[in-house]
Design a protein that fits this description.
CATH superfamily of the largest domain: Collagenase ColT, N-terminal domain
CATH class of the largest domain: Alpha Beta
Order of helices and strands: HEEHEHEEHHHHHHHHHH
CATH topology of the largest domain: Glutaredoxin
Number of domains: 2
Helix content: 55-70%
Strand content: 5-15%
Amino acid sequence: MINRRLNNTFFNVISIIVLFFILPGQIRAERPEVFETNEVLILFEPGIGEGAENVAQIFTEIKVKTEALFGWTYNQKPFIVLINNRDRFLKTADHPITIAYAIPNRNLIAIDYSKVVTTPFSLETTLTHEFCHLLLHDHIPNIPRWLDEGLCQWASGGFDEIIYNLRQSALNQASLTGNLIPFESLSSGFPRSERDRILAYEQSKSFITYLVRHFGENKILELLDQMAQGEIFSEAFYNVYRKSLDQMEISWKESIRKDLTWFTYFSNHLYELLFVAGAFLTIIGFLKLIRKKHQYKDDDFDE
């Protein structure tokens, strides 16, 4: 491992100049520090030097694992920017629930370090997720957004680039109410509303999990290899699965409905239902009390 601090080498000076050009202006306020290895160059705010070294070590490990999973190599040295302040990070992010993002055409990963080192987030899964974006776009520049996010969640084992505030699964609710988002409409981007955005993430992960469970990892890798060789997604998908995306989407929806019942829905909403039931019983009790008071008055009048 090579550790070089800012201004130690000509390469670092050039790297910082490049980083200053590619980063949004809002995070240029403080003089950054640099930690570099053979695999990655990390730009970080003062005070989190040990964290930067930890990120570099974890990145080396997850890079090997992710490359092995997809059977591809990533021959560039990515820039990782660690921002240790939520407000400063949000000035660079495209959505308020984001805790990390990748910009593949700039070979860049930006992470809200103040968030990923706290529960329930994981630095390892976040790094895996974001590196997965760089790896996929390096081989398939025009990969559909839902496929990109679904694969990176599958590879990392979680959502870990967004804050998930919903008590219940958005996917389960949308499935029960018939409000799932067509994947075709998620090809170029995800919705802006928080609930729909989370639903898009959940759908993407669920669909990839469905494909892997029913057809195996090899089929997913075959799909990606065809796309990497220049085949358009719709053709590659049909070549591999012998179904169109629309047909497979119907099968996926049916599998969700089999696993999901109204009992599950009521279980997910137990606290809300108990609250409503309690309020209803309170109202009934209040009405009964008023009725008894009227009866007492009538009895007194008869006497």
